[in-house]
Predict the structure of AprI/Inh family metalloprotease inhibitor.
Amino acid sequence: MTFSKTGLVAVSLAALVASGCSTSRFSSMDDQQPAPLEAAPAGKVTANQLPPPASPGTTDPSQFPTAPANTQVASLPPDGSAPAGASDLNAASVAGVWNASVSGQSCKVATPQTKFGAGFRAGPLHCPAPIDGIKSWNVAGKQLTLYDENGGALARLYSSGGSKFDGQTSNGQPISLTR
């Protein structure tokens, strides 16, 4: 008696189907329900200020460049007006990543054109106070203003030509932004 390969496969398949239908190994699971899960913990969500970043000595020092000792920041007129030669600004000319110098300490500030509040979102990186609190920025005429989370002005700057802004923080510290 000789079987063709097709016939042998058909007989084997029929045997497997028949044995699978008659097994009882899954029948005991039909009556069992899985145990109910415990409810997720319910609680109150609170918002707190994050702790300050680690001090420069605890991480890679190359991430915290310092400004040269001879860094010059242009002074602003005492009446708060724009200095001579300051040019009109637009959001596109401010958008990007800046090297900030605040009273001789350096950091980076990102100024994307992502709408936020009355202006655009801002992100300081390893900046000293008060610039570490920048949350947004906006331009009006010749002035670039950096704002905190409550919309309070942290710094006001004016274009010093090219890719540089000079100004001062709300507490009178000199600040400059360069690319």
